[in-house]
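Fold this sequence, please.
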Amino acid sequence: MARPESDRVKLLRSVLAERILVLDGAMGTALQDADLQAADYGDPLHEGCPEILVVTRPDVILQVHRAYLAAGCDMVETDTFGGTPLVLAEYDLAHRCRELNRRAGELARRACAEFESDGRPRFVAGSMGPTTRSLTVTGGVTFDELRGQFAEQAAGLLEGGVDVLLIETQQDTRNAKAALLGCHQAMDETGRSVPLMVSGTIEPTGTMLAGQTAEALVASLAHED
């Protein structure tokens, strides 16, 4: 069954039909520039986990978003690159996956609202990184498990109000496919439909880490909108 698109998604598609949109820059290096200390993460167990900062230091995350928006970007990414339960478990935060992703979406949405005008809408991309596992290279996780991981993250992002889900920095086509299915599962659960974006990382060898070329990645995803 087709899911209805919101007015914001329709606006995004109309703007994309007219011009290229500029995405923001890296979240990680911007946070490094913030010179954060152990106390900023709220608990010694959480030190080094960027995703917890949406709760412990939302002011820092907002400032990163605002700086990119002030520089002229059209779309900002949420602070959720490692936001799956699989990655958050390394910091004993897997149980807070949905909460952290939802909060990250809300913060990015808030920053965009501050910069929006009738003639210049700003959009939020829910960042979904490749996790620390690769189905083809490292193993240690099944396809269905990984799909569930991405579904939990995507549900939180959708609840937080993102305009698009960005499956980014993918190194394995099988991971990307699991992520796409997880996103569809989350959209069915939340009743929200947003566009999907995928970015793949090509090594100096000319392929992804798992061996697929850029052309092979495109062919594998051609069935998706």
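The beta strands are 75-77, 123-128, 164-170, 196-200. Residues 63 and 111 are 8 Å apart (CA to CA).
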